[in-house]
Amino acid sequence: MTRLFDFFFSFIGLFILSPILILLFVIGLIENGSPLFKQYRVGKNQKLFLLIKFRTMQRGTRSVATHLINPSMITPFGYFLRNTKLDELPQLYNVLIGNMSLVGPRPCLSNQEELISERKKKGVFYVRPGITGLAQISGVNMKTPALLAETDLEMIIKMNSYFYFYYIFKTIILIFKK
Q1: How crowded is residue 144: how many other Cβ atoms within 10 Å of its Cβ?
Q2: Cβ(65)–Cβ(112) under 8 Å?
C-alpha cells in the first residue's frame, strides 16, 4: 500500500511542483552552472542508488556527511534551499521510480560506517529510505548514529498508513514554521 501512495503522491507532486522545480533549476544554473546534485546513497538491502537533490554546496565539495562539511561551502542560494527544504524536491523522482519512499530512514552515504553498522544491527536496511520520517520530525540526525538507528527502528515498527501521513504532515508543518 505504501508503494502505491509513494507513486501517486510523487507523480502528483512532480506534476504540480514542476513550475517551482524549473524555477529552482534555472536559479541554480545561473548561480553555479550545476543545479542538480547526484550522489550514491545506501538504500534498501544496502544497495546503492543515485539520489538527486538540488545543489546547495559548491562544486567539488568532498562527499561526506553534511555535518562534517565547512558551512562556508554552502552557496547563498543553497542556504535558502536548505532552510526551506526545497533542495529535497528532486527526490520525488527517486520516490517515483522506487528507490525511495516519502517516509523512511534518511539514506546515508556508503562511507558512514558507524551509521551503517548501527542500522544493520537493527534491520533498518530492510525498508526503502525516505525523504522524511520520525528522526526528521524529532530532530535526530546523523551526528548520533546509534540514536538515529534506534529512532529509525522505532518508526519502522510503528509504520502504518496513519503514521505515513502523520510524518508527512508533521514535516510540512515544521517547514512552514521555519
Answers
A1: 15
A2: yes
Helix (H), strand (E) at residue 107: none
> Which has the closest alpha carbon to 30: 83, 75, 91, 93?
75
Q: Model pTM?
A: 0.91
Residue written as grid cell 562544486: 59
Contact 94, 11 (CB under 8 A): no
CA atoms of 73 and 64, how far apart (whole Å): 13
Q: How many other CB atoms are found less than 10 A from the CB of residue 95?
A: 25
Average pLDDT of adjacent 10-residue blocks, the chain of 178 residues: 93 97 95 90 97 87 66 85 92 98 96 95 96 94 94 96 96 87
Instruction: Name the grid cell of 19.
Output: 513550475
β-strand partners of 132: 103
